[in-house]
């Protein structure tokens, strides 16, 4: 069955406290020069009909009000 | 009025909701696999962690058979109240506008909060143009990690214009970073209401406040029994 990967991330402009917390922790660990950290989710799946993945993302995997998604077929 | 209180795997506030409803009428639990909700006049979608809150809070619960019945009741004008996780479920189901995001400080927070209710009947400012703070102020507990209300700016403007903001955090009480201090909203028809704080935990003087009952009464009054 065709494999796919769905990346889900907070929409641009929406406060992402998780990304901010990671970003703030980095200098203490000696990682300088890293900016704009955003934390999202990744879903791996196998789909008989990859054409339907966008609908699946809209309805369940992502909340289009607050998240963007990107489908990668593998 | 017969209240139905939904129960998903992972719900945890359904017993208190049942108790609150039984103070106002009859009440029974509705298991999430029940599709037929006939015989129930009003619905409470309670707090907790439905289906483990996997993926996103409320995302999976919205596909349950009981929620299909709730959507039909909501469309028919029946009173529907979503509390905390129940609010998240109603937003995910598209029965209420907006979404709930992680609290701005990333902490699960449990505290007593003050809310200002904006009842539907306040379409024109009361005499003197001031809201009656004593009458409209509620003290009830909040406990959540994902309660930061979010909607696009134009949606927020529309909610304010339509009087769909049902509850706001009082000054200094918006601990989660909600847009425009919004703690709860209603649908355009007014019969579906959701809020993050927990009115069902504030119905007995033993726990310090009985203000929560007023939330249940307001929802019952806003909808026509199915």
CATH topology of chain B: Rossmann fold
The figure for the number of domains of chain B is: 1
**CATH-wise, what's the superfamily of chain A?**
Phosphoribosylformylglycinamidine synthase subunit PurS
| Multimeric organization | heterodimer
* Cα separation of the termini of chain B: 10 Å
How many strand units of chain B?
11
Based on CA inertia axes, which overall geometry of chain B fits? globular
In DSSP terms (H or I, runs of 4 or more residues), the helix count of chain A works out at: 2
What integer value in Å does the Rg of chain A equal? Answer: 15 Å
Identify the strand order in the major beta sheet of chain B: 2-1-3-4-11-10-9-6-7
Spatial order of the strands forming the largest sheet of chain A = 2-1-3
Percent helix range of chain A: 10-25%
Helix share bin of chain B: 10-25%
CATH top level class name of chain A: Alpha Beta
List keywords for this structure.
heterodimer; A: 74 residues; alpha+beta; Mth169, Chain: A; 3-stranded antiparallel β-sheet; 2 helices; 3 strands; elongated; B: 226 residues; alpha/beta; Rossmann fold; 9-stranded mixed β-sheet; 6 helices; globular
Show the helix and strand layout:
The complex is a heterodimer of chains A (74) and B (226).
Chain A: E1 3-10, H1 17-25, E2 41-46, H2 53-61, E3 67-73
Antiparallel strand pairs in A: 1-2, 1-3
Chain B: E1 2-7, H1 14-24, E2 26-31, E3 42-45, H2 65-75, E4 80-83, H3 85-92, E5 99-101, E6 109-117, H4 133-136, E7 137-144, E8 148-150, H5 153-161, E9 165-169, E10 182-186, E11 192-195, H6 212-222
Parallel strand pairs in B: 1-2, 1-3, 3-4, 4-11
Antiparallel strand pairs in B: 5-8, 6-7, 6-9, 9-10, 10-11
